[in-house]
Amino acid sequence: MKKIILSIIVAGITVISHAQSIEPFKDGDRIVFLGNSITDGGHYHSYIWLYYMTHFPNMPITIFNGGIGGDTAYDMYKRLDGDIFSKKPSVLIVTFGMNDSGYFEYNGDNASEFAETKYQECINNYKLIEKRLLSLPSTRIIMAGTSPYDETVEIAGNTVFKKKNETIKKIIGYQIESAKQNKWEYIDWNAPMLAINRERQKKNPKFTLCGGDRIHPDNDGHMVMAYLFLKAQGFAGQCVADMEINAMKQKAEKAINCEITDIKKTGKELSFSYLSESLPYPLDTIARGWGSKHSQAEAAEYVPFTQKMNSETLKIHGLQGQYKLLIDNEEIGIWSGKELSKGINLAIQTKTPQYQQALAIMHLNERRWEIERMFREYAWCQFGFFQQQGLLDANDRKAIEVMDDNINNNVLLKNRRDTYTKMMHQPVREAMNKEMDVLISTIYEINKPVKRKITIRKIN
User: Fold this and answer.
1) Which of 52, 179, 312, 334 could form a disulfide with 240 if both were Cys (CB 3.0 to 4.6 A apart)?
2) Beta bridge partners of 188
3) Do 140 and 181 meet the contact criterion of CB atoms below 8 Å apart?
4) pLDDT computed for residue 350 by the predictor
5) CA 444 remoteness from chain centre
6) Which domains does the chain have, with CATH numbers?
7) The Cα angle at residue 172 between residues 195 and 136, in degrees rounded to 5
8) Are 366 and 285 in contact (CB under 8 A)?
9) Rounded Cα gap, residues 112 and 105, in angstroms
C-alpha cells in the first residue's frame, strides 16, 4: 500500500525508486518554496500540494509560497527572518538565478564581462543565504535550479538575451556543489525543461514552457516543474490504484492501493465494491492567471505524468461484447470486453465520482492559492519597497504617504497600492488567514476516498 511505503521511507529505509533524489514530504511537514516571481506568481508548488492532497489523503502537510517578484539572492537574504523563517519551515526549497544573472547587458559590448560579474555577485549573495541555512539544523534544505531562460523559442517582438541561460547554468552548478558539500538535497529544473523545449521546437519553433517572455512558465510549464519535483521524490510508478478482476471466477487477481470486495456476477452484470487509498489527480483544463495561454492539463503531452503518477487501472478478464461502466449508478462510458481486458485508466475519466470529488479539492486549492497570492503582493510591498525606506511593517499613514510619493516612478509599486491599502490592516490579514485555514481544513475533510460500487453491464 502507498501509505505503508511512504511511512517506511520516512523511517529511513530505502524502498522507493532508485530515481529518488529528494525525500518525500512527511506528515505534518511545513514546506516553504523560497524564490522570485516564478515562485511568487507560479503554480508549481500548488500543483505539488494537490498531488499530496489527492494521493496521500491521510497525511496533511502545509506548503507555503515564499516567492517575491524581482528578487535576487540578496533580496531573499534580507527577508529570511521576517518572511521565510517566520513560517517555521521543516523543509525549505531555495531557488534563484533568473534575476541574479541580469538581462539587457547580454546584448551589449561587454557581455562576457557582465555575465561573469553577475555570476560572482550572485554567488557572494548566495553565500550569505548559505550561512543562515547552516544555522537551521532541524530544517531540510533543498536546492532547486531555476527553470530556464529560453533563448531559442521564436517570439515576435521579444529580443533574446544571448547566453543568459549559460550564466544561470553556472549558478545552478554552484548550487548543486553547495548542496553536495552541505549534504542537502537538490533538483535541477533547467536542463530537463530546456530538453523538452528543444525537442518540441523542432516541429514548432514557437513552442516554449517558459511563457511569452522566455522567463515565466505558463501553467503547463509549472506542471512540468511539479512533475519533475515529484519524480525526484520517487513517485514515478506510484498508482492511484491497480485492479484486475477475473469475471468468470468472480475473483480479484490484483488490488494495489485499494480493496476489492463483494464481487458478484448475475446475468449480464458484474459488480463489486471498490475502495482506493488515493484519489485521481484532476488536471485543470483552464488557462488560469493573468496573461496565461496554456492550461495545466497540456503538460500531459510533454511529460508522462498520467502514465507514471496518475493511473487508476481497471482490468476485467473474461468478458465478450460491449459493456456499460457505471460507478455509484452514474454512467461513465462504454467499452468492449477486449478493451476492459487490456485495461482502462479511470483517473482520466472525468465523470467518475472520485474524479468529481478530486475536482472539488482542486478548486478549493486554487482559491487558497489566490488568497495566498494577495499575501505575496503584500510581502512585495513590505520587503521590495518599505524595507528600503525604513518602514518595514509600519502599516500606517506615513507608509501610505511614502508609497504615494513614489508610485509615479515605480509601476510595480503602483500596481500593488490597492492590495497594500487592504492588507495593511491586521484584521483583514487575520480574516484572510482564517479563510485559508478553512479551505485547507475542508480539503482534508473531503479528500478521503469513499467506497464505490462499480457495475459492468452488458448492452448487447
Assistant:
1) 312
2) 145
3) no
4) 97
5) 18
6) 23-232 (3.40.50.1110), 241-277+311-460 (no CATH)
7) 130
8) no
9) 9
The CB density around residue 42, as the number of other CB atoms within 10 Å, is 27
pLDDT (0 to 100) of residue 39: 98
pTM: 0.95
Starting at the edge strand found earlier in the chain, the sheet holding 62-67 runs 62-67, 30-35, 91-94, 140-145, 185-188
pLDDT for the residue numbered 399: 97
Which of 19, 16, 56 shows the shortest CA–CA distance to 276?
56
Q: Which of 18, 7, 362 is nearest to 219 (CA)?
A: 362
**pLDDT computed for residue 148 by the predictor:** 98
Residue 6's pLDDT is 42
Strand, coil or helix: what is 58?
coil
Quote the pLDDT of residue 19.
Answer: 59
Cα 358 from Cα 280, distance rounded (Å):
7
Q: What are phi and psi of 427, to 5 degrees?
A: -60, -35
Render pLDDT for 296-342 as a digit per residue (tens, 0 to 9). 999 999 999 999 999 999 999 999 999 999 999 999 999 999 999 99
Task: Please state, in angstroms and rounded to a whole number, the distance separating the CA atoms of residues 426 and 111.
Answer: 47
Q: Which residues contact 262 (CB under 8 A, 6 or more apart)?
A: 271, 272, 273
pLDDT the model gives residue 9: 37
Burial track 90-103 (b if 16+ CB lie within 10 A, e otherwise): bbbbbbbbbbbbbe
Q: At 320, list the grid cell.
A: 465478450
Closest CA to 48 of 24, 21, 18: 24
**Which cell goes with 186?**
537538490
pLDDT value of position 68: 98
* List of residues 6+ apart from 310 with CB closer than 8 A: 240, 280, 281, 283, 347, 348
Are 431 and 298 spatial neighbours (Cβ–Cβ below 8 Å)?
no
- Helix-strand-coil split of the chain, %, nearest 5: 45, 20, 35
The pLDDT of residue 290? 82
Q: How far is CA 390 from CA 110, 174, 183, in A?
A: 36, 33, 37
- Give the residues of the chain that fall short of pLDDT 50: 1-18
Measure the CA angle with vertex 448, ends 444 and 450; round to 5°. Answer: 155
102: helix, coil or strand? coil
Residue whose C-alpha cell reads 465494491 in the numeric block? 273
